Amino acid sequence: MKNKYLNIINTLLVVSIYFSTAISAYATKIPDYILNTIKTELPQASVRFDGLVSLPDGTVYLPVLPSNPKKNPAGKIVSTYPADRKLSQKPEVVLFDSNFALLKVIKNKNGHITVTDTKNIPFIIKTGLFPQDMLVPPGLIIPEDMKIMMGDLKIATSASSVNDIFKGHIESTKSDKQSKFVPVPYMTDKTLLVTTLDSKVVNVIPSDSVFPKFTFTLENLPKFIQPVCDDNYILVASAGKTYIDVADVKQEVLAKKIDIGYQPTEIILNSDKTKAYVAAADVQALFVIDLKSMSLSEKIKVKGYPKNITISKDNKIIAYSDKNTGDIYTLNLDETYLNSYAYNASNISKIIVIDKNIYLLSRTDNELQVIDTEIKDIIFKQPLAKKPVDMILIDNKLYVLCAIGEIAVFNLEDFSCATILKLPEAGFFKKFVPVNDTNLLLITNVTDKKYYVYDFVKNSVLQTANTSVYINDLQLLNKRLD
User: 416: burial class by Cβ within 10 Å (0-12, 13-18, 19+)?
Assistant: First the structure.
């Protein structure tokens, strides 16, 4: 028995060396030949950034990385438990031709989550290692002779805070008739994530409801919430915290914390949504999050303290203002990371960068200003209604939202204001929220418990939707959370 455990320890040392050299990418990425087999046999499977595999029916598989991977694998399944099962039949153990393995999470007779009995698991799998950045399902019980596979991986308890974020269901005292309404086409089966100015709670509101279905509570007031990866995850930053929480929507757990060392304040995504750029308080830098691995990939030192960060549609340039001076800078996203001063403006509420031009909203001057970054000066001004707060670029037009309740449509081809729309009610309007693959924008109103559905092609408000909470920030999920 002693010799057996010495052999396992020696094997683990080999595994550690192996992971530090040949397959370090396995920590966050299942090999393509395995992914191909999974997607072929289980087309509805989702593979999380840390390697955990899940199915819509709740089935979960833990990946086991091989200590002695075989050469030239094809992703073929060589054995299963129970024997001779296809992956589509969801066996409890799956061993591939590279010695990569999957272990199904099951419940024992006492209702505790675990894996199959150790006698059903080949020894070659027991010499492997779980990905060291994986969130193991909280409360998982691992057999004693398999715990060496954990490495430095920790198992959260069933009562761990990773389970708390999606708890807090609300039982409404209102009738369905009072709480439900019929959303406009293309807004059906969507979910609103709503934060307020004075609460740690994120309200999860179905698009056909006035009231939250449930809430999740953060550690402090939210700085931002950002759905990513086809709305499978939500990135959340709280005031006073130096990390970004990654909430797994399907598993309903906090899957990871990405610590950047400073308090995150703003976030933007590149056009293909594979990277997030984060600005933080009190640091002259931008942080790059790789959304495939959910990890901090880079810290870019910049001039000034970034605010109002924005990225061009071609992902070549980031523009931002210095929160202390109002200086506007551009940052080339190539190997040079050339960081250039462009202009100085006061009280900026929004920036958009297109080629060599920067379009900015000045709340002090109540205008849209166009800055040429080559001559470093204003080349055009467009007067606006009071308090311009947000704008969005759609089909070579800028849609500008003013807080007093007005939308101005600005044509980039001839620098003209194409049309102006007065919104139907008073208040302090704050933000555009695009509805993907539609002609719709949601418009938030900070001073009232409602939002508006705006059709930018028809240039008209299609619906006024009431909510039970005031809206400071709103993000939209293109799916329904139950």
Answer: exposed
Question: In this predicted structure, what is the pLDDT of residue 389?
Answer: 97
Query: 164-219+388-482 belongs to which CATH class?
Result: mainly beta
Average the pLDDT over 208-224 and give the result. Answer: 90
Please check the confidence at residue 210 and state whether its pLDDT lies above 50.
yes
Q: What CA–CA distance (Å, rounded) separates 481 from 149?
A: 34
Residue 289 has a CB neighbour count (10 Å cut-off) of 26
> Which of these ranges, 17-21, 31-35, 97-101, 260-264, has the smallest mean pLDDT?
17-21
**Residue 118 backbone dihedrals phi, psi, to 5 degrees:** -60, -30
The answer to whether residue 17 scores a pLDDT higher than 60 is: no
**Structure confidence at residue 172 (pLDDT):** 47
Q: Where are the beta strands (DSSP E) in 270-383?
A: 275-280, 285-290, 295-301, 306-311, 317-322, 327-332, 339-344, 348-354, 357-362, 367-372, 377-383
Question: What is the SS3 assignment for 38?
Answer: helix
Widest CA span in the chain: 83
Q: Is 122:91 a contact under the CB 8 Å cutoff?
A: no
pLDDT above 80: residue 160:
no
User: What one-character-per-residue DSSP string does 222-273 give?
Assistant: EEEEEEETTTTEEEEEETT-SEEEEEETTTTEEEEEEE-SS-EEEEEE-TTS
Q: What are residue 228's phi and psi, to 5 degrees?
A: -140, 170
Position 422 pLDDT exceeds 50: yes
The residues near 320 (Cβ < 8 Å, ≥ 6 apart) are 279, 286, 302, 304, 306, 307, 308, 309, 310, 328, 329, 331, 351
Residue, of 373 and 68, whose pLDDT is higher:
373
Give, as one character, the DSSP assignment of residue 150. G
Per the CB < 8 A criterion, the answer to whether 419 and 406 are in contact is no
The C-alpha atoms of residue 73 and residue 10 are separated, in whole angstroms, by 25
Residue 424 has pLDDT above 90, yes or no: no
User: Is the separation of the CB atoms in 382 and 417 below 8 Å?
Assistant: yes
pLDDT digits (tens, 9 = 90+) for 363-389: 989 999 999 999 999 999 999 999 999
> For the chain, what's the residue count?
482
Domain borders along the chain are 2-159, 164-219+388-482, 233-280+291-300, 302-383
| Cα distance between the two ends of the chain | 50
d(CA 368, CA 366): 7
CATH, range 302-383: 2.40.10.480
Q: Is the pTM of this model over 0.90?
A: no
- Cα(217)–Cα(219) distance, rounded to whole angstroms? 7
**Is 349 in a helix, a strand, or coil?**
strand
